[in-house]
Design brief:
Elements (H helix, E strand, L loop, with lengths): L2 H21 L17 E12 L6 E10 L1 E6 L2 E6 L4 E6 L4 E6 H10 L13 E10 L2 E11 L3 E15 L1 H8 L9 H9 L11 H8 L2 E13 L2 E13 L15 E2 L3 H14 L6
Parallel strand pairs: 6-12
Antiparallel strand pairs: 1-2, 1-11, 2-3, 3-4, 4-5, 5-6, 7-8, 8-9, 9-10, 10-11
Helix pairs in contact: 2-6
Length: about 280
């Protein structure tokens, strides 16, 4: 594998990581985990997203149901249930008749394998600019752009912040895919800061003021583009609808007779370890 291709491969790994913001299998070794007694989503939140695959360009629609400390992600006939208070991810494949149960600490080791070069970048290396108002899913938002350049290429992130709906920082990191057990990078840290609500509150002291300081705008669109050695990879995650519905009961239960299997993430980690241990090809 050439050096250029190796760099490009790392960019693809980081770009794919951005897509998990929408599948909400989401989760950061360096991120903010829910504090003891904290409820991530006090009220039900249902987000329908459209994801564009950076390699094939194909699109898929995912429904996220967030309530309490649980996020249920439904993609067709597949369900992922992330329980943040228990630190467990359950996935169900109804067509295959299989399910998996994975601890967050095991997922953290998988994600550690995919740490890219941008993880090492400092937040000071990013240029952040507010581009103005924009409407996404019939909701008013504010577009923010973050850009970073180095000797290998350019990384550009554009995000549209919902002006109407705010969540806590911990909930935002869950929705962005940078909460435990996933590792946040400099770009996500920059964007979390940019999404912090700047609205002035009449109440300046007490619990109400503390709550206001912990308000962050919901991302309506999140686009990440890597331009490296003349090649481009782009991930796109767009909110189509926001509601308050709970998940249908039939997507939550493991079907009778379903077979317990290893999660795809654990299988992928083993494959990476085997590739890392394989001898280098002869020139």
């Amino acid at each position: 594998m050439s050096a250029n291709r190796s760099i490009f491969g790392r960019a693809v790994c980081v770009g794919r990581a951005a897509l998990l913001v929408s599948s909400v299998i989401a989760l950061s070794v360096a991120g903010v985990a829910p504090a003891a007694g904290e409820i991530l989503f006090p009220a039900p939140l249902h987000i329908t997203r459209e994801l564009t695959d950076p390699i094939s360009g194909s699109k898929s629609v995912i429904d996220e149901y967030c309530h309490g400390n649980r996020v249920v992600s439904v993609n067709g006939r597949r369900t992922a249930i992330a329980e943040y208070d228990k630190g467990v991810l359950t996935t169900i494949d109804f067509d295959a008749g299989t399910y998996s149960v994975t601890k967050f600490e095991d997922l953290a080791r998988v994600y550690e394998k995919n740490v890219g070069a941008s993880m090492k970048a400092s937040a000071d290396e990013w240029r952040v600019e507010t581009l103005g108002g924009r409407v996404v899913a019939s909701r008013p938002g504010e577009e923010i752009e973050a850009e970073r350049k180095d000797a290998h290429g350019r990384q550009l992130v554009r995000i549209t912040a919902d002006r109407q709906l705010t969540v806590s920082r911990a909930a935002l990191e869950v929705l962005m895919g940078t909460a435990w057990p996933r590792r946040s990078d400099a770009s996500s840290d920059v964007l979390v800061g940019a999404l912090h609500s700047k609205e002035r509150r009449a109440v300046a002291t007490g619990a109400a003021a503390s709550a206001a300081q912990n308000e962050y705008h919901l991302p309506l669109e999140h686009v990440t583009r890597f331009e490296i050695e003349g090649e481009t990879v782009e991930t796109r995650n767009v909110v189509l609808r926001i509601g308050s519905e709970l998940p249908p009961p039939d997507v939550l239960a493991v079907p009778p007779g379903a077979r317990l299997v290893e999660s795809e993430a654990i299988v992928a980690r083993r494959m990476l370890e085997e590739l890392d241990g394989a001898p280098a090809p002869k020139p």
